Amino acid sequence: MLGNFNEFPDWISRGLDDLFPYKKAEDSDQSFLKRLELSSIEKKPLRVKLGIDPTGTEIHIGHSILFRKLRAFQDAGHKAILIIGDFTARIGDPTGKSKTRIQLTKDEVESNALNYLEQLGLGKEPQNSLLDFSTPGRLEIRRNSEWLENLNLSNVIELLSNSTVGQMLAKEDFNNRYKSGTPISLHEFLYPLLQGYDSVAINADLELGGTDQKFNIAMGRDLQKAFGQKPQFGMLLPILVGLDGTQKMSKSLNNFVGINEDSLSMYSKLEKVPDDLVFSYLNLLTDENLNELSSIPREVQKFMALKITSNFKGLEAAKKAQYNSEKLILGNQNSLEEIPESSISKVNFPAKAFYLFSKMKLCSSSSEARRQILGGGVRIDGEKIEDPNLEFDTPNELIGKILQVGKKKFLRVSN
Predict the structure, then answer these.
(1) Distances (CA, A) of 234 to 20, 48, 283, 368
(2) Whose CA is closest to 277, among 107, 34, 61?
(3) Distance (Å, rounded) from C-alpha 160 to C-alpha 139?
(4) Among residues 14, 19, 142, which one has the least CA distance to residue 76?
(5) Is residue 348 within 8 Å of residue 360, measured between CB atoms?
(6) What is the C-alpha to C-alpha distance for residues 166 and 63, in angstroms, rounded to an integer?
(7) Are 269 and 408 in contact (CB under 8 A)?
(8) Distance CA 250, CA 59 (A)
(9) Measured between alpha carbons, how far is 141 from 153 in angstroms, rounded to an integer?
(10) Each residue's pLDDT tens digit, 313-337
(11) How far is CA 135 from the centre of its chain?
(12) Which residues contact residue 95 at a Cβ distance below 8 angstroms, ignoring those fewer than 6 apart?
């Protein structure tokens, strides 16, 4: 972090990893504090950009860090400019990738985009959503195909003239691939330029991004200067470490908590977060006073799980999840109030235990199910299953029962 950002209010400085440029100057192009003051004097809300490439279908709590900061700017009276990268998603952001990404179709991207917007709160009241979709003047949703699809070859050449091969190869991901001999397709060099041009198209004052986005955001600042605009500032927030305690949260690594997960699943995952991550989860995903936390690690862990779950599901649902989770851990399902249900209709009977847990998607494969059973991590209604080939003749033997893998995954079997 470049500074402690004490001159900013807590809603800006909390969780902030980097702000660039960060200078105590009178120039509103160099000092974000001056840009804020100018916005207040002119009664002109800042245009705060956040771009999302809908290359997947599910938003997890790691993604929500940026949306929470964007919402904070909305609540302070500024305008959130949410860029749906429906054009750039077809290229795929090369950041963090060790090989060229598979390009998506236009229909796949649009389907993912609508899914994302629903998860962010489209159609909900502001108090029940990550972003404020309903207060006039607080949100502008743009798809970058609006301007990028209409660029002709002359425009593309003009964009390319604002960067060099050396600059691109200085980007860590490209540099690593170049040195290792891993192919880099020329269209991947276009991604930072196109993301940067988004800032020109919407005249951004500030762009939010993860710490891995500094190169792309800086490119936007450079292009705005080239096109005669006041350059944007870049505000970077940390990338959340996943449930495994080592790698960034990712669905592909199965170390994530989806914001659409039921409250019991969400709480149960969060209360198992490694102790050394609990503080950062509270800092980045809640507004709680970190100076008033308990000195007992387990109590802080449960407090964190409750607060984050309540942010997404409401306090009542979070408390119920906490209660039910404790009952599960104790092996007492008699008073469980809320358990995710899943139909057993797709399971073919007779069914062996390893097949059952794979088909019900509690394990990613039959081989994983075998490993989990042999490792002692599988239970049915609290009773440990030790034989992967244990056979169930009919669905009736299982309907109403709770299937559990470890302490994080469980469901109640329904018709």
Answers:
(1) 5, 10, 20, 43
(2) 61
(3) 31
(4) 14
(5) no
(6) 31
(7) yes
(8) 10
(9) 27
(10) 999 999 999 888 877 765 655 555 5
(11) 24
(12) 173, 212, 213, 215, 216
- Nearest in space to 265 (alpha carbons), one of 381, 364, 408: 408
Residue 209: what are its φ and ψ, rounded to 5°? -170, 165
Q: How far apart are the first and last CA of the chain?
A: 53
Encoding tokens for residue 6? 């004490």
Angle formed at CA 320 by CA 318 and CA 323, multiple of 5 degrees: 110
* All residues at 6 or more sequence positions from 122 whose CB lies less than 8 Å from its CB, including other chains: 129, 133
Return the pLDDT at 338.
Answer: 64
Length of the chain: 415
For residues 87 and 110, give the distance between their C-alpha atoms in angstroms, rounded to a whole number: 10
63, 120 in Cβ contact below 8 A? no
Where do the DSSP E strands lie in 85-162?
139-143
- Nearest-angstrom CA–CA distance, 303 and 271: 8
Cis peptide before 45 (omega within 30 of 0): no
Residues 282-296 have pLDDT tens digits of 999 999 999 998 888
Q: In angstroms, rounded to a whole number, what is the distance separating the alpha carbons of residues 63 and 250?
A: 10
Residue 328 and residue 404 in contact, taking contact as beta carbons nearer than 8 Å: yes
In this prediction, residue 5 has a pLDDT band, given cuts at 50, 70 and 90, of confident
- The identity of residue 175, as a single letter, is N
